[in-house]
Each structure stands twice: as structure tokens, then as C-alpha cells.
Amino acid sequence: MSKLTRFGVSIDGELLKKFDSLIRRQKYQTRSKAIEDLIIEAVDNSPVSTDNTMSVGYIDMIYDHHKRQLLNKITDIQHDFHDIILSSQHVHIDHNTCLEIIAVKGEKSKIEQLGHLLKTTKGVKHGKTRLFPAK
Ligand code: NI
Q1: Which of 34, 129, 130, 131 sits CB 3.0–4.6 Å from 28 for a disulfide?
Q2: b/e sequence 33-68, b meaning 16+ C-beta within 10 Å
């Protein structure tokens, strides 16, 4: 293992409380160790594969449309993937929150890449990609 690196993270306070409660139940001695394990798992199980199987499915995400530039970013990303997006539905959940469901068809790896880009856009609270083989 290489040398330890210290880094700062900004995170939602309520989410951090839930995380701390979870890692206490899992008997972690330190938050650093718990986060390190999560990172190892994420690196080992990258959500973006090289599988080119034709797939259909959907990407859903929840976001706050007031976040600066968020809607523009989400639209830009979707235009970059216009060839695999069949349709999208936007639902206004409450004053702040939007739910967007994007129907997709294409190579699995490309859909995963789209889902990952959307999910990791700053301001997106939840994002999930659900795929099925297109047969
Ligand atoms: Ni909305």
C-alpha cells in the first residue's frame, strides 16, 4: 500500500449522520476505514463496464432544479447521448425536487456511461440505471 493521503469532503449533514450510524453498527473503528472500504468496492465494481450487449431500460434520478446550472448540464449530457435516449419524463415532485426518468436503448456500456455521468453531476441526489438485455 502507498502512503496515506488526507483529503477534505463536503457532504450533506443528515447523510453523514446516517453513515456514522451505519458504520457504528458495522463496528468500524474509524470513519476513514469505512470510507476506504467503500472506495475499494467502488473501484473493484466500476459501474461502467465494457459490455456491448444491446440493452433497454431506464435511468432515474432525483435532483433540485434550483442548483446553479444543473438543468443545463443535465440537458447537455443528454444531447451528447441522443442516439441512445428514447424518451425522458420530468416530474415536479415538490417546490424544489424533480424526478426524471429516461428510457434508453443501446450498448450496455454506453448506457452505463450516461447513467454514471448524470448520477455524478453535482446537485443530483439519487441516480440509478436499470437495464435488461434487448432480445
Ligand atoms: Ni421539475
Answers
A1: 34
A2: ebeeeeeeeeeeeeeeeeeeeebbbbbbbebeeeee
> What domain count does the chain have?
2
Instruction: Kindly report, residue by residue over 73-83, the tens digit of the pLDDT.
Output: 999 999 999 99
Task: Compute, in angstroms, the gap from residue 17 CA to the centroid of ligand 1.
Answer: 28
Q: By residue range, what is the domain housing residue 32?
A: 13-44
**11 CA to centre of ligand 1 in angstroms:** 23
The three three-digit cell numbers of residue 81, written as one number: 447521448
What's this model's pTM, rounded to 2 decimal places? 0.70
Instruction: Give yes or no for a contact between 116 and 133, defined as CB atoms under 8 angstroms apart.
Output: no
CA end-to-end span of the chain, whole Å? Answer: 44
What nine digits make up the cell of 92? 415536479
Same domain, 58 and 36: no
